[in-house]
Amino acid sequence: MTSLLVLVVLVLVSVAIWQLTKIFDLTQVGGDADNSQVANDNDNNVNGYLMFAFLVFIYITTIVCVVKYGHFPLMSNSASEHGVEVDRLMWISMILIFFVQTITQALLHFFAYKYRGKKGNKALYFADNNKLEMIWSIIPAITLAGLILYGLYAWTNIMFVDEEAENPMVVEVYAYQFGWKIRYAGEDNVLGKANVRYIEGINDMGVDLADPNAQDDIQASELHLPKGVKVVFKIRSQDVLHSAYMPHFRAQMNCVPGMVTQFAFTPTITTLDMRETPEMQEKVANINKIRADKSKQLVADGKEALDPYTFDFLLLCNKICGKSHYNMQMKIVVESKEDFKKWLSEKTTIAQTIKSQEKKAEEGEVETDSTKVVVDSTLVAQKLK
Amino acid sequence: MSAHDHANEHDHGQEHDHHHKDTFITKYIFSIDHKMIAKQYLITGLIMGIIGVGMSLLFRMQLAWPEESFKIFNVLLGDNYAPNGVMRNDIYLALVTIHGTIMVFFVLTAGLSGTFSNLLIPLQIGARDMASGFMNMISYWLFFLSSVIMLSSLFVESGPASAGWTIYPPLSALPQAIPGSGTGMTLWLISMAIFIASSLMGSLNYVVTVINLRTKGMSMTRLPLTIWAFFVTAIIGIVSFPVLLSAALLLIFDRSFGTSFFLSDIFIAGEVLHYQGGSPVLFEHLFWFLGHPEVYIVLLPALGITSEIIATNSRKPIFGYRAMIASIIAIAFLSTIVWGHHMFVSGMNPFLGSVFTFTTLLIAIPSAVKAFNYITTLWKGNLQLNPGMLFSIGLVSTFITGGLTGIILGDSTLDINVHDTYFVVAHFHLVMGISALYGLFAGIYHWFPRMFGRMLNKNLGYVHFWVTAVCAYGVFFPMHFIGMAGLPRRYYTNTAFPLFDDLQNVNVIITVFALVGGAFQLVFIWNFFYSMFYGKKAEMNPWRSNTLEWTAPVEHIHGNWPGALPEVHRWPYDYSKPGHEEDFVPQTVPMGSDEEQLHH
């Protein structure tokens, strides 16, 4: 079946090529029918008009893309405090870009159409003009200076976190092939030391259990964040480079084995509230429609239907890290401070978990399989291939 | 002219020629003639290009229809890489990696620079050959060897290198992390080390030739902009490629001899590795110290070619010749101090991010100057819309569209959210991939008569251009939007994220455009090889151009000019100059007594 399809496509393509060449050939009729293979007035005319048509094509493509795909889910509806600033800068840059793009493409293609060659015409000998060169050096320079200043101001605010003054909540994000683990710093808000060399049994994040700061650290398989509290993520990797990408929060930082990187932000909207926003409702409804259509096809083929989708914030890997890079994700739950406290208080500390494990082991209920970690990260169980 | 006089005019290069006859091997294989080496580069580059583009079509199909199985995967990739027509997920990454490597280095560096620097430097500056023909030959054959090694990695059982063309360790260093980092990665590193040696030999040759072998009257400010671009490109290559070589060597040490330059504290496949104290961020710095200038190594020659073709076919002087040279130099200089914009979120000190944002956005200024100068050159011209001209205008168009989004990516604040998404893929494919490819095509259409003594069929050329132009926009324009929706690149499939389900139809559209565009490259391939043998015989100066290469005979001879070397009296852009009958005045025409000299 596939080979037939490929064959049909190939045949169609060759027919198309033949036809197109013929069109260009036909445009020669009535011309001086030369075979110099150098453009003559006829070619200049045809291609000049096509240049103009191409300008229209660019504009139409732009408009279609903006209308159909331009909800820009990642340029509005930011879920973090600094995200508002990022979005504003993004909008300013985008509008500027669209403006310049529209003008320059128009000039380029219009000139290509307008000044298409004609035998006997002579071009203007115009080799230099310092004034013009100054204009198009200085205007971009001033515009860019503005963008740079705004950008650097925002960047400095986002990246430089004064931990003593702001006292943000410390959370460790730990990446491995192919998943994430989370460690909360506990009461003291200080993470215990850690290194992959301490990895043993269920201590799978390599926490140094001798460190007093580690005693109240809590490990989790889901990232919960309190709304309105500044969080600083201390990011580690167990094996290769990963990147902790939290697009809804306009946050991203690479996870580098051998060093701790960091990123900080303040979530401003809970998961539940985000689900209620009109933009999100529309997006989710659209996705569910697509999924429902697909499910019909799947059921008809005797396969399982897809689950309906509910929105959740996500942490996903955005640096090529191996074969399952495409499915390295974790759910992020933003909730009220009270809900968060409640959720966290139900967790046991790493130290306690290990102690009870050891106790069980002594009692003979051997259960020391280090690989057994339950990671509830995916939103929807997906069956691939 | 007496026989005696005639003999006197021959210089050394010509006389040498009389003493031995070319055999098939010295003429077509181990040639030291720059024109033959240029053709060798071009054909090798085209073959690599077909493979590189072909790979992209395969992984585009995977992205558009992730749940389907394709017999063609099985046929092309074999039972090991694509069992039952389903592409293995690590092989997807391998294809992405090798596609990137081949296109950036083998097609757009060697295929573009190698072809046109070799062909045009001696011919346009009025030299008999390169400074060192022998080194030039070695340079090509090292390139050929590295191509063979790179392709051989496709047949390794564990798969070719799969860590992305940027080969960031630890992924590229540890076979436990991905199978492609075994033998495949070793072959990649060997191939690239040889490639760098080849590239350095070529670059040194270009620089020395341009500095020393210009003919009488060819001052630096009378050089065609092609030569300026090739010259500056060669200098950036010499400055930056050795750094990649050192990074590759250190990576080889880490992989094979247990050193820890780039690796530290790694727990993988159930055990702790011994590495301690190294940093992958160091590798990123070394890699991008080449990696970013590399973008301009690819782009500048294309811009040089475009400058020449746009001026010739507009029948107008290139606007702002000196500003064009200044912007080439400015871009080249800035290109070596902006590498950190690839690393805003790498974990390096955020202060560095501020510095690199500043230097990166500065590049927009010389780029804007170039774009506006091209547009002004078209203004009030008498445009001869030959296929080469169409590709040159197309280049300016994609250079603008792709370049503008650089303003977003170069801004560290905005890069946080679009870094490594499809927005980046769209940006660099337009601004360096498609633009440089258009430069390559433009150059081929324009100088094919100079290379093969025959013309390419223009109608096939028009079909090739218009379909390619529409498909290139069709592929890369919508890609910006899926990037802005947060879709990360290098995902084998997006089905693991229901969040992205609404972008799937865009992926299908992109793939359809890619397949059609890819298929239509066959028109070009057919035109190229058919015209090589059966094309219309070319005149000496078919485009009525001013530069020196069109004063040499159509049939290639050693030493380029049968008699004395041509002498240059004017800059190369005297098109439609008032006071002249013809609308072009070749550089060899002496200045009239009352004529104004533009450049000395």
UniProtKB/TrEMBL annotation, chain A:
Residues covered by the Cytochrome oxidase subunit II copper A binding domain: 166-346
UniProt-listed Enzyme Commission number(s): 7.1.1.9
Keywords of the record: Electron transport, Membrane, Respiratory chain, Translocase, Transmembrane, Transmembrane helix, Transport
GO process terms (BP): ATP synthesis coupled electron transport
Compartments where located: Membrane
GO CC annotation: membrane
Alphabetical list of Pfam families matching this protein: COX2_TM (PF02790)
GO molecular function, one term: copper ion binding
All residue ranges annotated as the Cytochrome oxidase subunit II transmembrane region profile domain in the record: 66-162
Membrane-topology descriptor: Multi-pass membrane protein
Family: Belongs to the cytochrome c oxidase subunit 2 family.
Protein name (record): cytochrome-c oxidase
Origin species: Flavobacterium lacus
TrEMBL record, chain B:
Name of the featured protein: Cytochrome c oxidase subunit 1
GO BP: any one term: aerobic respiration
Matching Pfam families: COX1
Family per similarity comment: Belongs to the heme-copper respiratory oxidase family.
Cytochrome oxidase subunit I profile domain location: 24-569
Residue intervals passing through the bilayer: 41-59, 91-121, 133-156, 187-213, 225-253, 286-307, 319-339, 351-369, 390-410, 422-448, 460-486, 506-530
Record GO cellular component, one term: membrane
Keywords: Electron transport, Heme, Iron, Membrane, Metal-binding, Respiratory chain, Transmembrane, Transmembrane helix, Transport
Source organism per UniProt: Flavobacterium lacus
Gene Ontology MF term list: cytochrome-c oxidase activity; heme binding
SUPFAM superfamilies: Cytochrome c oxidase subunit I-like
